[in-house]
Amino acid sequence: MKSAQLERQLGKLDEALKTLEEAIKKFPQFDKLHMIRGQIYDSRGETVAARQAYAQGCKSCPKSIPLWILSARLEVKAGVIIKARGLLERARLYNPKNDELWTESIQIEEKASGPQQAKSLLARGKSSPRDHGTPLIYLAMQECPTSPHLWAMAIWMENPQQRKGRSLDALKKAEGHPVVVIAVARLFWAERKIEKTRQWMGKAIAADGDWGDAWGWWLKFERQHGEVERQQSVIEACIAADPHHGPVWQSVAKDLGNVGKDAREILELVAQKLE
Predict the structure, then answer these.
(1) What separation in angstroms does the CA of 16 have from each of 39, 83, 253?
(2) Alpha-carbon distance 91 to 151, whole Å?
(3) How do residues 208-249 score in pLDDT, each as one tens digit?
């Protein structure tokens, strides 16, 4: 794997693919080998080869959540939303009660069909996602009742007047996870309650300073509403905390284009990428 990664970083993609093919023959159930191979093909615009690489990986490593997600995202990128939905449904059969897969499904629906369809996905009753039934956020939350990611999404899918009530439920069920705390901070941000937002951003960091996405949100907020001194304070505190987790933080930090960048640079990129 390290050999393939080095060859990839050096731009020797054909050599990296040869290394990966040899490695996969010896270690077919090591999911990262399949992931790297699919990503290389995808980076070269070879969608069919990338699809085959991910399909082989999902067959050999059906418990690998990142592989299923990469495979689904490839289909979204190719504009084949139906296939992306089907892949995530299969993934949930192999990996029940997994909130990452549910989160991915809901995000796909939100981008493809709008927030109402996403809310349906998040709230649906226990029937097949292809059936017409109760909204899907509830099926997701029935399977993963303490998922901070699903609860954070649920807050924003409520009508504005119901969001505060939903946030209280979320804080209780998800036990103060920074994802939920940040969602509450963003409610105050939307209401332009600057000091309240700042307080809740601080609570998110206190809950888990290793959650890089929380630092990104705080810097994004201070870029809009804070003085230069406040922005610098967030940057310095983040560097001292040296975070490594959070879906956006990890996607930015692991991007080959960001190899060698320090925590300050990663933080700036994360703040820009958060939506």
Answers:
(1) 11, 28, 21
(2) 21
(3) 999 999 999 999 999 999 999 999 999 999 999 999 999 999
Amino acid (one-letter) located at 50: A
Burial class of residue 257 (count of CB atoms within 10 Å of its CB; 0-12, 13-18, 19+): exposed
Tell me the per-residue pLDDT of 40-66, one tens digit each, with 9 for 90 and over: 999 999 999 999 999 999 999 999 999
Q: Print the SS3 string covering the chain.
A: CHHHHHHHHCCCHHHHHHHHHHHHHHCCCCHHHHHHHHHHHHHCCCHHHHHHHHHHHHHHCCCCHHHHHHHHHHHHHCCCHHHHHHHHHHHHHHCCCCHHHHHHHHHHHHHHHCHHHHHHHHHCCCCCCCCCCCCHHHHHHHHCCCCHHHHHHHHHHCCHHHHHHHHHHHHHHCCCCHHHHHHHHHHHHHCCCHHHHHHHHHHHHHHCCCEHHHHHHHHHHHHHHCCHHHHHHHHHHHHHHCCCECHHHHHHHCCHHHCCCCHHHHHHHHHHHCC
Which phi and psi (to 5°) does residue 95 adopt? -135, 70
Provide the greatest CA pair distance for the chain: 57
Alpha carbon distance 28, 33 (integer Å): 8
Task: Report d(CA 231, CA 237) in Å as an integer.
Answer: 10
**pTM score:** 0.85
Beta bridge partner(s), residue 136: 121
Could you give the CA distance from residue 57 to residue 33 in angstroms, rounded to a whole number?
8
